[in-house]
Amino acid sequence: MIEIPPPHGIYDSVKDWVDRNIETVSKGAVLKEIYFPSNFSRRINRPPTRYPSKLEGGTVGVIPDGRVWGQNGAIITPDQHLIWDASLEFVHPRSNHSIFQEKALPPISHHYEQIADLTHVVGRNYYHWMYEVIPRIHLLQESGLPVERYIVRSEPDHIPFQAETLQHLGIADGQLIKTYEGFHIQADQLVVPSQPSFATKWGYDFLRKTFLKENSFENKRIYIKRNWSRIITNESDLWEILKPYGFIQVELETLSVADQARLFSGAEVIVGAHGAGLVNLTFCRPGTKVLEIFSPTYITSLYWAISSLGNLKHHYFIGDFVGGNRVQETRGWSGLDNITIHPRKFAAFIRNMKL
């Protein structure tokens, strides 16, 4: 049996591969620029931290004899390079990518004429799925390429929002090829839509057009309750402050994507700790007030940027960190730290929002 070595280099993107190997075009390589990068035009003030000055564009590439390896879906070119933006793992330096830890790759198990890549290392997370997987289907649609089968990352359990959104877009389960440990396939034409690393305007527009089917005008005031990480440790104190303002509590994990879109489209105020559920700010009406609560150990402008795209009124409150949680302690990442609020400070902040 001939051993297949791991890649010996990295290209940033399919575009980078084509630009540096122009002869591949004559061999069937294709690169379609669907959206060009654009300047980020902020529409609201007070970003909680730094944000990109440019928003990414979107491309679709075709790699003749391209390969996909591993559960996370690493993309390998014919000249034995990894395509980084479509094979992203949260590692530094890049040489720590899981594919470079292999002495040899397993034999190619299947060969396809044409197949498209939709893998993502953390596609089980609602934000990453909605902004970094689903918009890639839009790129494929806009490319005009007749894709019928898709590679997705396998998960140990059923994830309802993945099934719902794919079905809504007309992709049946029988069209999916799911990865696994030791997965290694090759295609005559491997179709690779670029994978955004931040929310994009074209992704925002596509999500609204696709999943916001009707507007609600109920003017609800919503508090998003979290149950497993980034929990407000003294949530009863927070709730005593919010309740007189007419807030309701919601657990978004219990709702379909369609119901979440409908709920947020009818909200006038949304309060919640930073988390993937705030993806649904995408479906809000302009002028909706948003209060995002952070731990001081992890602050990001992600949902401020989405709020800016929708012209929402984004506010943020930074709570206190009084210790991690079991999930955080096992992963070594501060992004899951729990949050404690100072009741008097929080009450004053709510009053200043003029609800």
Q: What's the helix count?
A: 10
Instruction: State the helical fraction.
Output: 10-25%
Tell me the span between the first and last alpha carbons.
69 Å
Q: Count the strands?
A: 16
Structural class: alpha/beta
- Unreliable segments (pLDDT under 50, ≥5 consecutive)? none
Mean pLDDT over the residues: 94
What are the secondary-structure elements, in order, as H or E?
EHEEEEEEEHHEHEEHEHEHEEHEHH
Features:
355 residues; alpha/beta; seven-stranded mixed β-sheet; five-stranded parallel β-sheet
Tell me what the structure shows.
- This protein is an alpha/beta fold and 355 residues long.
- 24% of the residues lie in helices and 23% in strands.
- It contains ten helices and 16 strands.
- The chain has helices spanning 14-20, 126-132, 134-143, 160-168, 201-211, 235-242, 257-265, 302-309, 326-331, 343-352, and strands spanning 9-11, 30-35, 38-39, 54-55, 58-69, 74-76, 81-83, 110-117, 150-152, 176-178, 184-193, 220-224, 247-250, 267-273, 289-294, 313-318.
- Strands 2, 5, 6, 8, 9, 10 and 11 form a seven-stranded mixed sheet that branches. Strands 13-12-14-15-16 form a five-stranded parallel sheet, covered by helices on one side.
- Helix 6 runs parallel beside helix 10.
